[in-house]
Structure formats: structure tokens, C-alpha cells
Here is the input.
Amino acid sequence: MTASNHNLCEVQRRRFFTSAASGLGTMALASLLKEDGLLAGESTLPLTHIAPTAKRCIYLFMEGGPSQMDLFDPKPTLNELDGQPMPESLLNEIKFAFIQKESARLMGTPRRFRQHGECGMDLSDLLPHLSSCVDDIAFVRSMHCEQFNHLPGQLMMLTGSALQGWPTFGSWLNYGLGSESKNLPSYVAMTTLGRGLPGGASSWSSGFLPSQYSGTLFRNQGSPVLNLANPPGISRDVQSRSLQTINELNRVRLGQVGNPEVAARIEAYELAFRMQQTAPELLDLSGESKATLEAYGLDRADTAKDATAGFMGTYARNCLLARRMIERGVRFVTLFLSTWDHHSYLDSGLKRYTQVSDQPVTALLKDLKQRGLLDETLVVWGGEFGRTPLGENRVNFKTVTGRDHHPYSFSMWLAGGGVKGGQVIGETDEIGWGVAKDPVHVHDLHATLLYLFGFDHKQLTYRFQGRDFRLTDVAGNVVKQLLQRQA
Here is the structure.
């Protein structure tokens, strides 16, 4: 080895051990060494800071911003004031995506709310299935953030930052806890048939974390992962020998430069090879009972002629696959349902999207509970923000039938994984404009989610470009009311 090569390797070696010793790197390294049989017995390093109550997560991301006052947060006063202007004092310093402030008017809801469960939870008539699960669910009505456009809002909710290039929550968990599955990705994302996302791959990216912690996108049609199947004429034996040769070369290169991305490439090739046998079994639903398929609604008729045609079966299947994935060791699954962005035709739009999602989401909760999985599986439901109590009077709109973006107060819900169900956290004011009690910022939500997985959000860090980054940036407090076990 030349002197220059030796110096390069030494620099890379020091960089590796320095980064591995910062934040959770040491913990992740210990986990990997033990997995490979290189660390005898139990690790002396704690893999988490706190005893965890959650081991896996299914994140039901409702892209576009669901309307909270039509689903989860009844506002009788808003109905009484329907058609009246907002107090000018509330409109000062407020930004809208499309609303014209001067002529904006309050808009009530045609939906009917009634109480459900032993806890007496108020839910909209658009959610008849979910209403049967309210005693297992914690509703947060006081969510808020600063981002009022879709891409920054989605990035904020998924990564803790409105900027692209940051790791998603799933990647942080993958980094901190490692994988429970050798034959499937630890982190999987699934989108709705035919619908993209403003952020694209940023919505499941590992950002500045090593690429091995990134999510894997599973497709709704054809091969679940692009380029997973062998080309015609290539046998599994030929592929195995080719892969062995490629990875031997990659390991030589890894030894020369010490770049962790080379190690990630090796693991990606090997995982893809193993997935060729495991993915078809995962996607084969023939072993599921007829009752299970009917509960999720895979056989529901879908008469839609618009861009949502096919959503009924696709989303039901994705919900069932999410349960099958976490059973097989996948730690984090994100199901995206696009788009709840109802600037117009709000009522008919909500009817369609709740028709698509209410039954399979409820079936997922009940299925997890019946199988004894809900206690250790955190389920999160929500979008990037909510909708304004004002009707959207966009220029050139002949009638007002929708709502604009509203990050100042919106609703989300959580279940399982150590969450205390049957309760409402926070309140909004009489018209749903702002938070009146117990505000929960996105950073607070992330701090709480990490706590459920056993992490102090201030200690789960990764050094990048000279500073330690974390999911909650420099903010965030655990929302203790959400916890079954008090912090």
C-alpha cells in the first residue's frame, strides 16, 4: 500500500469511528456487530435510552391536509356564524395560499357529529367504521406548525424540517434501532395508485443519513420494487454468482476507501437478492381468510370515473400489506393517500376519501389488536396541516365549496405502541381558527413518537457538516398526556 493510500484509509478509519461514536452511532454499530456474530453475548451498550413501548410503526399519511372541522373537531359556533366575516384582528399577519382576505367568509360544515365509545368521542358521520375504535385512539386537536404550503408542510411533518435533504422519521428509527428483518427492507413506503407526492422520494429518504436507512418504495402494480426480477434467461444461480463477484469487488473497494455508502450498496444488492423470494410471498394474499379480505374491503365495488378510480382496492390492499409487513419484521411502513387537498368540492371530496380509507384503516386497527400486535405497533394518522374555517374564495371561483390550507390548528390521531387511547388532547377555539389549550407542535409530536420507541429525542443525533442534527432540531417536548406510561 502506498503512503497516500495508507493515509486515506487512516483518515476514513478515524472518520468512521468518530461518526460511529457520536449520537446513536455506537448503538447502531453494536447492533450490527452482534448481528454478524462479532460481538459476544449481550451488548453492554443500551440500544435505547428509555424502556420502549413501541417496536414498529405504521404511518397513515393523508397527503393534502384533511379538514379537521369536518372529521374530528366539531364546531357548532362555526355553523352558527356561517357566511359571516372573520374578525379583522385574527386576519392580521396571516398568510393564505389562495384565500382573498377582504371578502373571505366563515364556512360551517354539513357533517353531523355524535359521540361514540365509552369515552364519548365526537366523530363525523363520514367515519362510521373508525367510530367503533375510538376507545383505542388518542385524538390530538391542537396540532400546529408554521408551514402553509404542501411540500414544506409535508417535509416538516415527515422529517422535522421544511427543507429537503433531511432524514424522515422512519430513517431515524432505522438508524437508531436497526432492522428486525433480514429478507425485507426495514422501512417501506407505499403510495396510492397513480398518485405522486410533491416531495417524491424525499418523503421516504434518509437525507444526510447513510442511504441504507432510506425507505424502499413498493409499487402497486407489477414487481413491487423496480428491477427486482431477473431479466429473461438469467437463472438464480447465475445471478447469485454474479452478485458474489460484484460484492467481493465492492468489499475490496470498501477496504480501500472506507466509504459507508459502499457498505450500503453491498447490503442493498444482498437484500434485493433475498427479496426475490420473500416479496412474492409477502404480496400473496391467498392465505388470508375471506373474512379478513372482506373486513379490509378488498372486494368493494369502485365506480369512480375520476382520478381516484381504483383507490378502493389499492388502499385496502396496502393496509393489509402493512400488517403483513410488520409481522415479518418491517419496522416502519408509510402509507400515503393522495390527495385531501380540497380547495373546492370539499364535501364530495371528503365523502370519497373517507369511503376509500375509513373501512381498511379500521380493519387494520382491529386486525392488529386481535393478533396481539397493537400494543407494540404505533399507528399514526394525519396530514401536513388542516383546513381553514374560512371558505376558499379564490379568484375565478364562481362558488365557495372548499377550504384553504391551515397550519395554525389541525387534528391527528394515534393508537397502539404505548399510546393512551380514548382521549382528546388539546382544544381549538370556537371556530377552529387557533389552538386554545395544550398546543402540540410537530416537534412535540416527533419527540413523543421517539419516546415511545425508547429514545430521548435530544440524544438521537447524527453529526453532519460539523454539527449534530436530530429529528426535532432544537425544539420539542414529549406530550405526556399521550402516554400510557408516564414519562
Notes: The chain has a mean pLDDT of 87. The chain is about 35% helix and 15% strand. The radius of gyration is 24 Å.
